[in-house]
Amino acid sequence: MATVYSIQQFIQPENSPGLLFCDTKYSVTLGANTATALTVPGSGGIGLNASTTYNKFVALFRYSQPISTETDVFVSNGGTAAVPAGSSFASTTSDQNPAGYIVKAGDVLSFITAATGVSVTVCFYSYID
Q1: Can you give the pLDDT at residue 39?
Q2: Residue 17 lies in a domain
Q3: Residue of 9, 81, 87 lying closest to 38 (CA atoms)
Q4: Could you give the 3-state DSSP secondary structure of residue 7?
Q5: Is residue 75 part of a domain?
Q6: Is residue 9 part of a domain?
Q7: What is d(CA 105, CA 72) in angstroms, rounded to the nearest whole number?
Q8: Which residues contact residue 124 at a Cβ distance below 8 angstroms, ignoring those fewer than 6 apart?
Q9: Are strands 118-126 and 25-30 parallel, antiparallel or unpaired?
């Protein structure tokens, strides 16, 4: 079954000032063909009361290098990310250069690239549905 996509959740007013600075942020410089894991934090987030606990986050990904076929980053949630091999389609758990996803506390994100020196930053914003 395909995932339902609703753009209405992400439309912002025309004069929106943008996102607040993220207070839950992680970064890494990836090695070539070596998967690196990041566990989604447990609770709290920017804009929430200190006593409030939520378990969903919007994870936004930023990449240091201009994305090209040589520096693509593949991301997986709950599995080990893999760089595709071969010239035919195959089932995969990895997404190529995603901008962001809704994730849950405790999810394990995996990142991989075929290049060296590609930095990835992940910012977590609390998500209330």
Answers
A1: 96
A2: no
A3: 81
A4: helix
A5: yes
A6: no
A7: 26
A8: 22, 24, 25, 40, 41, 45, 57, 58, 59, 103
A9: antiparallel
Mean pLDDT by 10 residues, the chain (129 residues): 40 59 90 95 58 73 76 94 90 93 94 93 84
Residue 34's contacts (CB-CB under 8 Å, 6 or more residues apart) are 112
* Cβ proximity of 32 and 15 under 8 Å: no
* Tokens standing for residue 14: 């025309």
Q: Which residue has the tokens 């929106």?
A: 16
- Residue 9's pLDDT is what? 47
Contacts of 106 (CB under 8 A, 6+ apart): 39, 40, 42, 55
Which residues form the domain of 80? Answer: 22-86+93-126
d(CA 75, CA 28): 13
Closest CA to 107 of 129, 74, 77: 77
